[in-house]
Amino acid sequence: MAQKEWVESESQVDLEEPELYNVIMWNDDYTTMDFVVEVLADIFHKNYDEAVAIMLDIHEKGKGVCGTYTYEIAETKVQQTLKRARANEFPLRVTMEKE
C-alpha cells in the first residue's frame, strides 16, 4: 500500500476578521430594571455588577451596549431577548448595529 505524501503549499490565505455588531438595549417606561439585569445575566452572561452597570446606562442614557458579537451571535441574542421580553409582556426594544 502506497503512503500518502503531504505537499505543503506556499500560497497564503488571508483571513479577514468578521464584522462585529453591538447589541443595544433601549430604555422604556415599562420594562423593570430587575428584568433587564436578569436578561443581561442569563442571555449576555454578565456578572451582577456588569449587568447593573449596563442597566443603569440604559436607564440614564436611554440605551446601553449589552455586548459585541459577530452578526449571527448578535442576531441570536437579540431574538432571545425579544422572545423573553414578549413572554413577560414587556415592550423592551433591542437592536444591533455594526461596530
Structural overview:
- It holds the Pfam family ClpS.
- InterPro entries: ClpS, ClpS_core, Ribosomal_bL12_C/ClpS-like.
- This is ATP-dependent Clp protease adapter protein ClpS.
- Binds to the N-terminal domain of the chaperone ClpA.
- Belongs to the ClpS family.
- There is one protein chain.
- It contains 3 helices and 3 strands.
- It is elongated.
- The longest helix has 17 residues, at 71-87.
- Helices cover 41% and strands 21% of the residues.
- 23% of the residues are buried.
- A 3-stranded antiparallel sheet has the order 2-1-3.
- It is an alpha+beta fold.
- The protein has a single domain (20-98), classed as Ribosomal protein L7/L12, C-terminal domain/Adaptor protein ClpS (Ribosomal Protein L30, Chain: A, 2-Layer Sandwich).
- It has helices at 33-42, 48-61, 71-87, and strands spanning 20-26, 63-70, 93-98.
Record the SSE blueprint.
Elements: E1 20-26, H1 33-42, H2 48-61, E2 63-70, H3 71-87, E3 93-98
Antiparallel strand pairs: 1-2, 1-3
Helix pairs in contact: 1-2
Protein name: ATP-dependent Clp protease adapter protein ClpS
Pfam families: ClpS
Domain Adaptor protein ClpS core: 16-95
